[in-house]
Specification:
357 residues; alpha/beta; eight-stranded mixed sheet; six-stranded mixed sheet; 27% helix
């Protein structure tokens, strides 16, 4: 049995995106994802980190993040089936804001990981609505999803909170802040109840393509304790990827940062993102799945300018460059083309050009 999983980085919604999506009777973000949704939907299941909130009141795309519900619908329509809420903005609006956000995400039939059990149950929910693994082990903060007969455990953790000085110690307990104790408990449960374990880590230094010692230390602990794959985000730019082989001969893929699925941040390389395509396999005589193949699709946040009807679009980075080279100068300038080529060359220097297997 095989399962193909697509992974993206942080999913952000900033004010210029909100302005771009404004229509007469609300918002429409669909044009931002049209160019890349085919890559996400080509998989059996797609995951990412949803780094915004959905609460009543003023929308915000800086400092505190709060987005229109139409953004969430567009993310779902683009193919994302599960999101991690383990990120540094998860308590921008306190625990009440987190509960409201969870409720809105569940209304869109998007699954969640990286949260505590007590926040999975709102006033309108009862014990019967809890995920099955939550009923069996209410301390488990992950989500186990069966994909083509393979049970995959998705765990999510954040390095901390951007507003930790503004929230109480009790409120902090609602966020899935990484600790070895918390991760070890989740991993042990996942080992007994799944065939493959993926840790989604919100970590690293913003606007840095270098792997930090902090990331290395966490990686060593997670690999030693049995995680099969680590997918990172938070730096807002792409960081290297490697395969670590354990003493038992298992290959553990570590993608230290996939960048952002979408954002309009102005860092030099924040407009380059990766859709990581992973294939895992399990034989009928084994209770463990293995990494079979991984490849990636580089995507680019194209800014068509403030006067454009649809300003921001996620695009196939290689195709955008190829179309220009073939004479289609309608979408990008020579300056943008040269920048894209330079960034593609940097990606090729860090990542294998052929699928890893």
């Amino acid at each position: 049995r095989t399962a193909r999983i697509s992974a993206v980085g942080d999913i952000l919604c900033q004010m210029d995106m909100i302005d771009d999506a404004k229509i007469d009777d609300g918002y429409d973000f669909s044009h931002m994802f049209t160019g890349v949704s085919k890559f996400v939907k080509d998989s059996d299941f797609a995951i990412g980190t949803l780094e915004t909130n959905f609460v009543d009141g003023k929308y915000s795309g800086v400092g505190k993040y709060n987005s229109p519900i139409e953004f969430l619908k567009a993310v779902k329509d683009s193919g994302i089936g599960l999101v991690s809420l383990a990120h540094n903005h998860v308590l921008d609006y306190g625990t009440q804001g987190l509960e409201t956000t969870i409720s809105k995400i569940k209304e869109q039939n998007i699954e969640i990981t990286g949260i505590k059990e007590n926040l999975e149950r709102t006033n309108e929910q009862d014990e019967n609505t809890l995920d099955e693994e939550k009923q069996e082990n209410p301390d488990f903060t992950g989500n186990i999803k069966e994909i083509n007969g393979i049970k995959v455990a998705f765990l999510g953790y954040t390095y901390g909170l951007s507003n930790e000085n503004e929230v109480t110690d009790e409120e902090k307990k609602s966020a899935n802040i990484y600790s070895e104790e918390l991760a070890q408990k989740d991993i042990e449960y996942a080992k007994q109840n799944s065939n493959y374990i993926i840790a989604i880590m919100h970590w690293g230094d913003v606007n840095s393509s270098e792997i930090s010692e902090y990331q290395r230390n966490i990686t060593a602990f997670l690999v030693e304790n049995g995680v099969d794959m680590i997918l990172g985000s938070h730096p807002s730019v792409v960081e290297p990827m490697e395969i670590i082989q354990t003493e038992e001969g298992k290959n553990v893929l570590v993608a230290y940062s996939l960048g952002n699925y979408i954002s309009t941040l102005k860092y030099a390389n924040a407009d380059v993102e990766l859709i990581l395509n992973i294939q895992i396999a399990k034989s009928s005589d084994s209770d463990k799945a293995i990494l079979q193949k991984v490849d990636y699709t580089p995507i680019y946040v194209l800014d068509n300018g403030t006067k454009a009807e649809n300003r921001f679009e996620l695009t196939d980075m290689k195709k955008l460059a190829q179309d220009y080279a073939n004479g289609d100068t309608s979408r990008i300038s020579r300056k943008t083309y040269d920048s894209i080529i330079s960034k593609l060359e940097k990606l090729a220097a860090v990542y294998c050009s052929e699928p890893l297997s």
